[in-house]
Amino acid sequence: MARAFLFVLDSFGIGGAADAERYGDAGSNTFGHIAQACAEGRADREGLRKGPLLVPNMVSLGLARAAHTATGFRFDSTADAVSASAFHGAAQEISSGKDTPSGHWEIAGLPVRFDWGYFPDTVPAFPAELTEAMIREGNVPGILGNCHAPGTAIIERFGEEHIRTGKPICYTSVDSVLQVAAHEVHFGLERLYEFCKTVRRLVDPLRIGRVIARPFLGETSATFERTYNRHDYAVPPPEPTLLDRLAGRGSRVIAVGKIGDIFAHRGISEVRKAPGNMGMFDKALRAMDDAGDGDLVFANFVDFDTEFGHRRDVAGYAAALEAFDRRLPEALVKLKPGDLLILTADHGNDPTWRGTDHTRERIPVIGTAPGLTGGDIGLRTTFADIGETVAEHLALGQGRHGTSFHATIGGHA
Ligand SMILES: O=P(O)(O)O[C@H]1O[C@H](CO)[C@@H](O)[C@H]1O
Ligand SMILES: [Mn+2]
Ligand SMILES: [Mn+2]
């Protein structure tokens, strides 16, 4: 029996991207900088966490070695204690962009070779024709924002006016996104989703990667809070991905968290969602129980990115990594010979970095294949090597991009 479990720790980069300079991110290192801050006592928070970063289970899968492969960074002296059948390495992204769709699509064997559309960091950020079309076809009295902004700040700034006027708050970032924040009750959640679907259609010709619904609750600037009803409307992948290939031969692809949205629901058999990393971990464990021969469980843990990376919250990010790591044994005990578990990431989001955006970084590729030898898979030149390895493991034919490292970890050559 062969099954594969792919867990993406959203934004958990390990630095060292050869082309980071081009993104203004040379030197960024999500894992390295969090680990350093923790070691130096700069990530202590009363009632949350204290001291050095404790992620022994990921270290035993080779996280420290992966980080060393990516940048030469030494995490700690336990770095050599890697468990039998664990494999570890780092991967460089070849796609353009440093956002979620680029990272996930490349992991699934489809590097993004075209340039995404971006909105300029000007006010207004959106072309006048687009704004007019959003108002007319979205049937709203106008829009607020129309600029680059971090999501919490823009709700604080325009939330009350939004409630008063019924105008949705539309904003963007350095990523290829058009985000719409609106009040779940005053504006209405379903109405927000409908509005986003309209916007999705309008920005398709502009090659915008995602339209993101950002619902929030609260009545005043001081009390507004975003809810877990966020929804991403991604442009569909332009070519078949690993998921389509699996679905095409009748295997199940169980998507946990926002994976379904990221692939515009192409090649997805089932979507399971829950609020928060821990809820998602529960869903991932159930999905592992349910997966059969030839199936893939593809999970995304988004809190690292949304709650801590973008918020530049080092202590929060560290605590989230520690919480995830504490639960990892629950997944490890479910593994049987024939299974393959890979932990990876889609881009960086260094919480010590300037600004509030993603950072272009290499990603860790660590995991275990019980019954195989494991070992050092080195520095992979594309995230697509992950998808190709999963493909080979699940006995799919070769895809168009990437090179499987299955033989390196003792699998069929
Ligand atoms: O600041 P918030 O609204 O969380 O937005 C962030 O979330 C988007 C998707 O990850 C990024 O492009 C960034 O703009
Ligand atoms: Mn992401
Ligand atoms: Mn993000």
TrEMBL record:
Origin superkingdom: Bacteria
Residue ranges annotated for the Metalloenzyme domain, each copy included: 3-396
Catalytic activity: alpha-D-ribose 1-phosphate = D-ribose 5-phosphate; 2-deoxy-alpha-D-ribose 1-phosphate = 2-deoxy-D-ribose 5-phosphate
Gene: deoB
Sites where the protein binds Mn(2+) 2: 305, 310, 358
Co-factor binding comment: Binds 2 manganese ions.
Function: Isomerase that catalyzes the conversion of deoxy-ribose 1-phosphate (dRib-1-P) and ribose 1-phosphate (Rib-1-P) to deoxy-ribose 5-phosphate (dRib-5-P) and ribose 5-phosphate (Rib-5-P), respectively.
Class in the EC hierarchy, top level: isomerase
Binding residues annotated for Mn(2+) 1, in chain numbering: 10, 346-347
Keyword Isomerase: yes
Subcellular localization: Cytoplasm
Alphabetic keyword roster: Cytoplasm, Isomerase, Manganese, Metal-binding
The enzyme's E.C. designation: 5.4.2.7
Gene3D superfamilies: Alkaline Phosphatase, subunit A, Phosphopentomutase
Protein name as annotated: Phosphopentomutase
Pfam family, one: Metalloenzyme
Pathway membership, UniProt: Carbohydrate degradation; 2-deoxy-D-ribose 1-phosphate degradation; D-glyceraldehyde 3-phosphate and acetaldehyde from 2-deoxy-alpha-D-ribose 1-phosphate: step 1/2
